[in-house]
Amino acid sequence: MTYQEIEVFLTAVRTGSLSGAAQTLYITQPAVSRHIQALEQELGCVLLVRKRGRRRLELTEQGQDFVLVAEKWRQVWQEARDVARRDRSRTLRVGSVGSVSTYLLPAVFRTFLEKNPACALTFHNCHSWEAYQYMAEGTLDIALISDDMFYPQVETIPAYREPMVLAAGNACSLPPRVHPSMLDPSRELRLPWNPEFDLWHSFWFSGGAQPRAVLDQMSLLEQFFSWQGSWADSWAAAPVSVALSMRRRVDIRILELEEGPPEERIFCLLGPRRKPELSGAFLGCLRRELERLPHVQVYL
Q1: Of 27, 149, 229, 285, which has the maximum CB count within 10 A?
Q2: Shortest CA distance to 212 belongs to which of 261, 169, 158?
C-alpha cells in the first residue's frame, strides 16, 4: 500500500469518476485504474464499482469503511513526513517538577514566546529523577527540579531558593507566627516537596499521624483549599511563591513558620545537547519573573 494508491483512491471518491481523478492528479485514466486495482488486490476486496447506465463510481460497503481508514492513513503519512522537515533547532523542550510548573512557569512561557515569536516550545511535567534521565538522553533541553543529584553529562546549577510558609484555610484559628507544635496533623494537606521537607515533617509529626489528604499533584492543593465547610480549617506547608499564587485565587492566610522546614531549593539542569541561545533566553525570562516575587533569592 503506497501513498499514491491512497491518494488516487480518495481522489476518485471525491470526483466520482476515474476520468475526474485522472484530470485532478494529472495522470492517465489507465494509471488511475491500475492504482485502484493494486489497492483492491492488497486488501482482498472491491472498493469501487460503476453500475451499468451510471457515470459516477459507487463505493461498496467495504469501500465506505475504507474511506475513513484511508484518510487516517494519509494524515499519518503526512505527519511522518513533517517529522523529517521539522526544525528542532528553534524548539525549546522544557521539563519541570509540578511545584514550579503549576504557578511560576505559565508567565515565563508567555514572555518567552512573545519575545521569541520564531521559536516553538514543548513542555513535559516530570519528577526530578526523571528530568535527569531525559536530559542525558537529549529528550529535554532544560529542566527545573527540586532534588539535585549527580548524573553523568548533566550540569546542575542553582536557580533560586525561597522560604516555606504555612497556607491556612479561612477557618484555621492560628496566629501570624506558628510553631509546628501548634499544628493539628489531622488537618494537614501534605505534598512531598523534597527529601529535606520529609525529614522535617518526620521530626515534628509522629509516623502514626494521618494527614487530611496526601497529594501528589500541585494543582490539587488549590482545589482542596477552595472547598468550604469542614475543609476550611485545613493547612499546608508550601513555598512562599506557591502560597502567594494560591491566595490570588482562593481564600487562605499566609503564616510564618517558626522552626519551619528548610527553604525550597530549585535547580536548573542543562544537558549535553543544550541550545545556548534558546536556553539563555528562557532563563532570562525566568529570572525576571522570579525577581518580581518577594522573599525569593535568585541565583540565575
Answers
A1: 285
A2: 169
Give the Å distances, CA to CA, from 28 to 18, 70, 274, 285: 9, 22, 51, 58
Burial 8-44 (b: 16+ CB within 10 A, else e): bbbbbbebbbbebbbeebebeeeebbebbeebbeeee
Q: Give the DSSP per-residue string, 186-233.
A: GGBEE----HHHHHHHHHHS-TT---SEE-S-HHHHHHHHH--GGGTT
What is the average pLDDT value for the chain, to the nearest integer? 89
Q: How far apart are CA 113 and CA 90, in angstroms?
A: 11
Q: How far apart are CA 36 and CA 75, in angstroms?
A: 19
Mean pLDDT by runs of 10 across the 300 residues of the chain is 88 86 88 89 87 76 88 84 65 92 93 93 92 92 93 93 93 91 92 90 83 86 82 91 91 93 95 86 95 92
Q: What is the pLDDT of residues 218-263, one digit of tens each?
A: 888 888 888 867 778 899 999 999 999 999 888 899 999 999 999 9
* Run of H or E residues at 12: helix 3-15
The predicted structure's pLDDT at residue 87: 58
Query: CA torsion angle for 116, 117, 118, 122 (degrees, to 10)?
Result: 80
Q: Is the pTM here over 0.90, yes or no?
A: no
Place of cell 507566627: 177
- The identity of residue 157, as a single letter, is I
Task: Extract the C-alpha cell encoding 69.
Answer: 481508514
DSSP 3-state assignment of 172? coil
